[in-house]
Amino acid sequence: MPNKLILETSPYLLQHAHNPVNWFPWGEEAFERAKQEDKLVLISIGYSSCHWCHVMERESFEDEESARLMNENYICIKVDREERPDVDQVYMSAVQLITGSGGWPLNCFALPDKSPIFGGTYFQKVHWQEILKGLNLTWRNDRQKVERAAKELSDGVASTEIIKEKVVTCGSSLKDLKLVAEPWRRKFDREFGGWGSAPKFPMPPALEFLLDYAWLSEDSDLKQHLFFTLKSLSEGGIYDHLGGGFFRYSVDREWKVPHFEKMLYDNAQLAAIYAKAFTYFGYADFARIAKETINFTLQEFQADNGGFYSSLDADSEGVEGSYYVWSLEELAAISGDDFPLLQQFFSLTPSSSLDGMINLSLNREFHSGVHSEEDSTRLDNLKAKLLLVRSERKKPSLDIKQIGCWNGLMVKALSVVSRHLNDPNMLCLAEGTAHFIEANLMDENGQLSRCLTSGHRSGLAFLDDYAFIAEGYISLYEASLEESWLLKSKKLVDETLTSFYDPRGGMFYFTSKEQEVVVARKMELTDGVMPAAASSLGHSLLTLSHYFFVEEYDRLSMQMVSNLKNQLSGAGPYTANWSRLLLRHYFEPVVVIAQGDNYKEVSKKIASIFYPALIFGGGQLQSKIPAIATKVVDSPNNLFLCTGKQCMKPMESVDNLFVELELLKQGKASGR
């Protein structure tokens, strides 16, 4: 007999629909039942591709004794964190306050009024049953103790990830940026790339900051380490050398053994970063990685409606990574006479972390050498053979939620790859994804929804949905020069000012004023594997201020980064997108407008250089964008270069423009 989750559309919730646990979906029905039956509430949060979520389900949620204890003593709620990131944010804060760390599955116990009292992440079955018994006993015998704990913990949750009072806005300097970079530099892993120790995450917002800061500072050491990191990621086992795309993170320091989830958000962001890195470093393999990563998302995640699904599971047939790993005997049998070449190209050392199996990573010494065309052909044929054999295995399950913010990241990724690799097909795909968002996640009143699952639109959008889609539309404008996308981006940003902005703190809440408040209305201030929603919005506000001459946008963007400025030094990757926003305010965006018949050709030439401070626009003389409409002269083809409120005399030569851009950069790099 299935539980109430059988009526849901989330693949994660449906995975638990046949557990013996009487799961409820998140909603008032569950909390009313808890009040009526005088029970505590268990809120269990995860996502469909999470390996340890599956482990705890098998060990505890499918176990009859554990289920009996849960059903008799608690009202049990299952939450898909990707559908309800607001619920996840609140109870993750609570668990981090209790334990000092977090992760998934996230299991948090609460009062019937939703106040958290105790929690953790993965629990082994014996420990889980002890907690279920002990907490219920305390609830029955010492209720005041439980209620005091709930009050203290709720107060703690309400005081984290929040800016209550805005600070005085302040400018930015090169010194501020050095205060971010230098403590971070001391944590660089010089042997294997990245920073810190295992587990290691790529953390795309951090990579993007380092890319932009290396460009501005001309710091050769940082530039070299960034190149080494990007190369190490693309050569390691965290990258799928047969099917393309990146796994979620590495369990070891060397990037060899990953957790095998594949997430849309990782691959969207990393494809864009590798495309930009190709332009910056001129290293052809980075362009290949960007293309292969996009091709992976198209093959595995793109739906018929033009949008993108969410993730591929880490597990297949109940075993993590079994779809991707090999025995030495398998590899030898498939490659035949070419096995020695396979041994040269790939590192084929069995891993104890994988029960003696092999996850393919490149033999870096061989890969960095010069190879004959014949060897390259043989290697391509070998990889095709292995991919064919792998495709006959049972594939990991696909989460078919189409999430607004993650599709916004794909619009940006496809647009960036289109520009930096000069690929018109990528632009068509970016436009198709944007049209999917407009047709499927936006209602007739312009209200944005969180996600689409099996044709069912669910939930009001959160700040990350508005922010990432707005930023995606700006990138799409830069690639296509179709003004409608810039106007749509502005409309989304204006909606955030109406529904999410807190004038007292000078920041944006993660939930809108129309949405449920769970324990406390919170903000998202730190970056992780995705940028903090507000930091993404800060970038869009800064960019749009220069297109539309709205000084209030620029002021709001500067206010937000000023609020966080004292936290940036030493926070490194955890505030990287805020630091990149600080960098953009320091540099002050350089606006280039191309007018006339050849503006699209000029756009292609400008995309051939790496200049992250650049805001580009172009078109004929009639325009709804003030930055373009105000640039009118008699010459048929003109380039306008503006900084602040001043514009240079119109230019007709792109080469002259490049000279002026380099002079501006050198001035800022020296602190002038």
From TrEMBL:
Superkingdom field: Bacteria
GO biological process, one term: carbohydrate metabolic process
Signal sequence, renumbered to the chain: none
SUPFAM superfamilies named among the record's database cross-references: Six-hairpin glycosidases, Thioredoxin-like
InterPro entries with a match to the protein in the record: 6-hairpin_glycosidase_sf, 6hp_glycosidase-like_sf, Ssp411, Ssp411-like_TRX, Thioredoxin-like_sf
Pfam family, one: Thioredox_DsbH
Domain Spermatogenesis-associated protein 20-like TRX: 3-155
CDD domains membership: SSP411
Name recorded for this polypeptide: Spermatogenesis-associated protein 20-like TRX domain-containing protein
Organism, as annotated: Williamwhitmania taraxaci
